[in-house]
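Worked example 3. Consider a protein that binds FE2/S2 (inorganic) cluster.
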Amino acid sequence: MSPEKLARMANQIATFFHSKPHDEAVTGVAEHINNFWEPRMRAQLFDMLANDNEKFDPLVREAESRIRAVN
Amino acid sequence: MRLIQETDFGTPASRSEKTVTLTIDGFEVTVPEGTSVMRASAEAGIKVPKLCATDMVDAFGSCRLCLVEIEGRNGTPSSCTTPVADGMVVHTQTGKLKDIRRGVMELYISDHPLDCLTCAANGDCELQDMAGAVGLRDVRYGYEGDNHVTARQSDQPNMRWMPKDESNPYFTYDPSKCIVCSRCVRACEEVQGTFALTIEGRGFDSRVSPGMHEDFLASECVSCGACVQACPTATLTEKSIIEIGQPEHSVVTTCAYCGVGCSFKAEMRGEELVRMMPYKDGKANRGHSCVKGRFAYGYANHKDRILNPMIRETIDQPWREVSWEEAMSFTATRMRGLQETYGKDSIGVITSSRCTNEETFLVQKLARAVFRNNNTDTCARVCHSPTGYGLGQAFGTSAGTQDFDSVEHTDVVIVIGANPTDGHPVFGSRLKKRLREGAKLIVIDPRRIDLVRSPHIAAAHHLPLKPGTNVAVLTSLAHVIVTEGLMDEAFIRERCDWDEFQDYAEFVADPRHSPEETEAITGVPAKELRAAARLFATGGNGAVYYGLGITEHSQGSTAVMALANLAMMTGNIGRNGVGVNPLRGQNNVQGSCDMGSFPHELPGYRHVKLPEVRAIFESLWGVEIDSEPGLRIPNMLDAAVDGTFKGIYIQGEDILQSDPDTHHVSAGLAAMECVIVHDLFLNETANYAHVFLPGSTFLEKDGTFTNAERRINRVRKVMSPKNGYADWEVTQLLANAMGANWNYTHPSQVMDEIAATTPSFAGVTYDLLEEKGSVQWPCNEAHPEGSPIMHVDGFVRGKGKFIVTEYVATDERTGPRFPLLLTTGRILSQYNVGAQTRRTANVAWHDEDRLEIHPHDAEQRGIRDGDYVRLASRAGETSLRALITDRVAPGVVYTTFHHPGTQANVITTDYSDWATNCPEYKVTAVQVTPSNGPTEWQVEYEEQARQARRILQAEPAE
Ligand code: SF4
Ligand code: SF4
Ligand code: SF4
Ligand code: FES
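Given these inputs, the predicted complex is written out as structure tokens:
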């Protein structure tokens, strides 16, 4: 999918969780992505976080380590 | 098989719990207080002659045929208007009564044509029956005097005579046969709530008239059929009865249009459907219907219906008709080939919200057990996926909390983002009935929907918010309730997580959520909003009904949570008359979600990551189930454009027409190598398909639909599938062609499999449905007869969860290029993308989509009513004709999406709900300019579609 669209989707999720306490928010973002994003989407996300990470809300960046790896 | 004849008790049932005992013709009868003598007699099996009474409407007492004698009372009171009393002694048949009744009948018959033998109602006419019942043997008066029967009289035109009105496509009105019993007028008022009919004139001059002496089609009539059903004579008669004759057997089934899920008797002659009659015992509709379910079934026989499988190598070729065997082996080889080349995750399915639970279950099983991935999604993605997510988070179940009967106990109703009188008409009528009884209404909608002001109904408050600001308005309502201390603290303490509520209360109490602050964003006057909040919190039983105007937003899931918050803080959960009620679009949206159509969850809303859930299916199906979530529809299309998703089996959906951003959908479809469309017609998506598998209609198969109140209703086969197979059989053929070894011989076996694997369905069997008519899930050991109302003693998830709902403006904003906001909806006579309703006489009411625009915006642009306009967004442009109206606010335009030529989704963008990817249909920034006809895209599209629909003529046999 287009990088802009993927980033927008991730950031929208982060936006929702911003109103939660910080740690809960980071976990919330990671869990949401783990629960609903197919591996191809997560792979693209990791890829973009590695190369283009200023596109993302800080919460998404922080959530990275809690997002399930794609094998 | 026989014709189901439901008893007409003459007057509606009394709801009183107190009973009264009386004697009728020597039999002792006990009935609820308030019952009429007529109904009490009928319950005892005694039929008192009657003409103007029927149990769908209140008694009127005009025909004087139902007279009885009551010991100790003078005269001969009419039994339909006389309530029972303890110890009453009633005689229904005495010499005096017989004489009066014969006299009454003689007068009726003397002004009625005597063409019984050739009359369409012959055999189903109450006037005929009553003439027989009272023993009428001769009529002393002829037609020489004043009458309504003959067109001419003594060589002069008879001024009292009126010609037939055949303007309605589905029924006729023949005034010469009318006995002026006013049953039709009362049905239109009391049952339908449209008030389209009146009795014109007085005494002998009186006649039934639609509107102000108009014909039916031109009047306010919405063609629900209630008056036709109520009419005791042939005056109002279905045209199909006139054409075919009286039915000889009937079968109870469920409407396949909207999420109300009305029960009907399909009345048949052999395998020919004569008419659909609403079924009184249907618990969703209680004997009522709308024009779609009652009349719009003609598509089943439409000439466009495809009856043979077809294939083609590439989509630029014409279609080739082939045998089922060839179609299946072609398809299976292609799909398996794709998996070999591009990996097992390169193919998937889309289940249908129009097909049965059993069919949907099999399609997702095809993905999970045969494709061996979780690439399954359903069109509920594009409508109610936020409902599933939002209510799941707040309450623990992904479904509405009430049954439809609950509305009868509601005191304050919020209708938000829904237009029940058009989208869910039978529920709309039931709601209107309650409103006429005095319940208060709050409408939150950018558009002034009909409910805001209609005969005998006026909304207490209409909050005309700017599209896209639902969450701001709902949070503001909560702000008022919390800051003014109107919440139900006892309920919250007992039923919800108190700490979470504290956090939440702190959040909403912030002055930035006050109506005075949000007014600038939402456009809703603060005073109105405050008043609405107070009314909802303090007005008694409060219920929320909502539709796609809530879910189809980038904050759709958040808005659903906000509704749950409102209901919990006011204590409006867990009993009759309250609750949070999604109005589902298509007939089986609820069912398709329940059946595990979503890529992340197995049937019963259980995530695929849970090993204990996978184990249940793995042991039954003998395969390993993938633990990773699959692709959602928009993600499938993205992956297709990226080249990693190559094949799809789409059952009963037209994603090209119904999904947003048409250009993106067509690019995705065009990039695939095997698109299988399984449908009744060559729909728009089929322009991109390689395989077309003909589908069957709901009349041609057995199964179940689950409506918006979680009610599992039976669908029953009344004729053989014209295409050869029911849809579940087609899926089974495909699965088996791909190596599965499925051996279902009846959908009941699929239901048994659902029950065996899904706790909320554990108790459901076809036998139970046969016995109870229908049940509402959860139906299991704890609720053996189902659950009309949920969360009665506590929330399914334990404690109700308050979730902070911060308003975030959508990225879709107006600006100088696109200064207006477009929102979309539907109208009564058409359904969804219109594939079915456009192929019926319903086009009489809506033959094109129009763009509603406020006079102010129209004038600025030099647009006149009826002009062609160009509607453009950043995604694309289309053209359609304008309809100038102040129903929409300045700055907002509105259209429906029932006609493919309009291509409204060329305009909508790929923005979507943050949690579920449900597209943001309800807000698109657009510009409207005058134009002189279809856009280039529309012309090109027409041509492409024409090319893609070519079917090769079969070669003559040797
Ligand atoms: S069809 Fe329905 S709306 Fe029309 S007149 Fe009859 S009852 Fe009224
Ligand atoms: S049209 Fe039928 S229901 Fe209406 S008043 Fe005449 S006879 Fe009665
Ligand atoms: S309200 Fe819905 S279910 Fe009922 S008849 Fe109309 S379309 Fe069918
Ligand atoms: S049926 Fe009672 S007065 Fe007509």
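Take a moment to read the result before moving on. Chain A has four helices and no strands. The first helix of chain A runs from residue 3 to 17.
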